[in-house]
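COURSE: Structural Biology Practicum
ASSIGNMENT: Worksheet 4, Part C
STUDENT ID: 0417
INSTRUCTIONS: Below are two proteins. For each, the amino acid sequence is given first, followed by its structure token string. Answer the questions at the end about the second protein only.

PROTEIN I
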Amino acid sequence: MPAPTVATGRELVWQKVPGVSRARAIVIDGETWVRLRRVKVLGSLATVEAASGSWTLKRVGWFRTRVSVRMAGSAEDLAEFTPNWLGASGTLAFADGRSYRWACTKSFGREHTLFRADGQAVLRFRGGQRLTLETTDGESDLPLLASICHYLLQLEREDTAVVAAAAGAAAAAG
């Protein structure tokens, strides 16, 4: 299956996949560019499928969490995302030496951006679902990068909801 072509500056939208629970995809000109599916309701394992390959994403660790990225069926990490202390930003490091910086670039989490090591913006997310390709030059794995970033936003939303629920329960109890 050939991958749909994408150009710099194009805005893409993550949308629900009809008939598949906990799945989102980016569809370009009627063709699926990439699909991200959370495997279980409880748990962080997700699968990514694109024309260029299949991968798994999973949050691992307890006190110092990180996200491992693996080729589907492999036990070796292809990449690892290590969040900063607060978890809203961090570093995505690939085993081949490439690295990216993930950062919140507008207040209140309205915008997040993935930067290459040289400071060039690669992907920009607005509102969690809208993605703009800032550059496609030299980026061979844009579907994987877009999926990792969307997955990080999903985890951040889930963590925020847990904190809000805990705070509400504490306020109600006390």
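PROTEIN II
(use this one for the questions)
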Amino acid sequence: MTNDYIARSANRARYLCAGQSNLHRAPFRTGRLPDALGGFADLDFMDSGSPLFTYNMALYSPGAGVGVGNERLAPGVFTRRPGSTILTDSGGYQYARDKTGQKWRGEASQRWSLRFAEENGDESIALDIPTLAIGYNPRFPTFDACLDQTLGNARYWLAHRRANTRFLAVLQGRDRAEAMAWLAAAKTVPMEGWSFGGTMRTNYLHLVEVLLDLRAAKLLTPERNRVHVLGNSTLVQAVMLSAIQRSMRILLEDDTFLITYDTASPSLLAVYGFAYGHPRLNKSEFSMTEFKPPSLHDNGEDRTPFPLRVSALADRLRICDFIDPSPSRQNGTDSLGNILTVHHNTEALLRGIDEANSVMELPRGWKDDLAPPHIIAAYEALASFHEYPHDPLGHLQMSRAAFAGAKAYALEQGQ
């Protein structure tokens, strides 16, 4: 039976796997194929007919190809199709972290990013210059330089758009003062949604403050009711964003208001040979476990079932399916083994997020043994701030200690 994470995610904030080129082209591979798969197309989890698991949202970034690669992706897992939503990333990180400053080519960079967005995305994060460029990229040495260029990019996109792609404005800032200044400027060039970057994106009080500000300015109306939080997929982040979404939907009287979030964690773990295991959900832990499966050349004949039975793929495969012994590699895991691990990691993380949300949705008292107390307190405060419409932030301020504990725990667990 196919595992359906679309239905399981209903009424919750949605995780977006940050797609990578290796998995993207997996359905079109040739060569060795594990006996348990009917074909490489089985790995396309964005296809509703996948026999393993299905999902219908993902993020794709131009990555290293920003500004120079093909504007249109070749067909693959993360190709736009009916019933799915692809969010494209802006590529701003690649420009910000360019020490030479040579990648940025002004209007040519604006044009390339816009065409990439419209060719590949149902929704797209508008091209920004993140504040992490400060002190790194000589073209953008100050906060004002990053903000001014981001606003210029937004105006360019809006003036030259030619497809029905939904654009999300980016909110950056290294502290509250910068974040609020950036917000004030971004509100003058409103798009069809909002995306949180910068260090403030894991500050739940700040997220709510900004959302309430946008609501008051009538900039979270149904045509602008899409919010994305960049670069975090801890279980803590997953449940906190679900709680915020729940309260905001009630305040907005809009059941289509949606928060999403992303990381490339499934792919990054696989690069280092790690796989996700079961989540740890108890009074002191609220996180995913990680495991390093056997991957030496002499494991190539090991027909032991894959030990982490937390994905439909892992239920069917053996250790040897991940390994193609070759003296030219440091270990036995080849590109197919990497793809299989990323596929497993993606479903395992979705499953962990589902279990974490399910725990937090239990009645009060029932979840006390399944989550740390500060995480429960923070979640319940966020899920109930709509009950205090005259002073929701005042209600949340009383839970500052719980938010601090939840944020510190999430940061400790990483992304």
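ANSWER KEY EXCERPT:
Q1: The mean pLDDT is 93.
Q2: Residues 335-360 form the longest helix (26 residues).
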